[in-house]
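*** Backbone structure tokens ***
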Amino acid sequence: MVKKNSFKAPWWLANPHLQTVWGALFRRKPLLDLQEERIELPDGDFLDLVWTRSKTNAPIVIILHGLNGSVHSRYAMGILQAIQQRGLRGLLIHFRGCSGTLNRLPRAYHSGETGDLAQIVKLLQMREPNTPLYAVGYSLGGNVLLKWLGETGRSNPLRAAVAVSVPFDLAKAADQLNTGFSRLYQWWLVRGLKQFHQRKFKGHPLENAFPNVEKMKTFWEFDDRVTAPLHGFSGAEAYYRESSSRQYLKNIGIPTVLIQAKDDPFLPVSGLPEKSELSDFVSMALSEQGGHVGFIQGKFPWRAEYWLDNQIIEYLLRQ
């Protein structure tokens, strides 16, 4: 099902780029009391988790951040605060290498890597078999979440899920980010990927395995020459084709809502799924405005309201 959501942009953030940039740069970070946990993985690597200090045995909401994100991302801090205020437990999973500590193995994370998410959910089920589990994914994290939901179908253990500003079609997203003003986002994100790569492989046997990383400017270049070979894909085209969540939406078997804006500068409208591509468990709440992980309201800049947080929590609590 595809329906319009209730979001309307205020006069001072009517532009999609303003919506996108405001949330990423100017949102105030709340002060949260968080607890860290490191999970050792069967392959010898690890994942760093961050928990809100909430009531024991409360339902758990798993948060999956976006590309180059972490618990310090403003949207992540915002949703963790909202989760805690509603008496739930928040659990942010740092993708490999995103916690501030470089992961051990050459591989890191990518838009289609669902194994680590599955591993953490399995661990939570073992620890607390009767605790309801939910999940929220943003951007790349939303793509990972939806792909995993599609892979597991009706056997998925989550009670419900929300995905925000998802690049459903990775090739179209990469093309979109190489056009117009969106090139600024590409420059910033690829810059972060290159810096991460250079830190990770400095002095490593694979230091020279990926030549001219510093000269790469587009996602197509970086994913073709670095992401794909590191994670077993023949190239960027194969990586995008196999990892895009759009093809998995029809197999999702738990209540899931997709919160998306038509003016998202990370994805063209042609990259949005059609109604026929969604399973009966999936609904897409689509607005004309909102940008990328924006959806900010409020009469004035000094009274900004973060519409997403309440919408996400209210949806999960209804399930």
